[in-house]
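For the sake of transparency, this paper describes our internal protein records without simplification. The tokens are whole numbers drawn from a learned vocabulary of local backbone shapes. One such record is reproduced below, unchanged from the form in which we store it.

. . .
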Amino acid sequence: MGSRVQVDRGTRGGDGLPEHMRFPDEGCDLYPRCLSCRLPRCKYDDPAAARRGLMLARDDEIRRLRQTDGLSITALAHRYGLSRRSIFRILRGTEAPTDIAAGPSHDARGSTGLS
């Protein structure tokens, strides 16, 4: 990616102001073109935001695969190179509990409510 900035020598005679420059849309390692990028902020402006954006897209895909294709936690963990615990964290709150045989639930004080 070479940085080729061309001056538009139209009506202004090439004064070098940014609005009279043509910048090539060369994108980055995430998207081939800046104008087609789906990140809310440029990765060069906020590198942490780019990482969050990619993680959110990955998490959405994991939720979709779990809900529509019924992939197991282990299969999702293997596919994305994550731990099973990470998959559970991503899915937290998106599906109803299915394992009622896990035992009695505990309240904040550790009591089961079964006196």
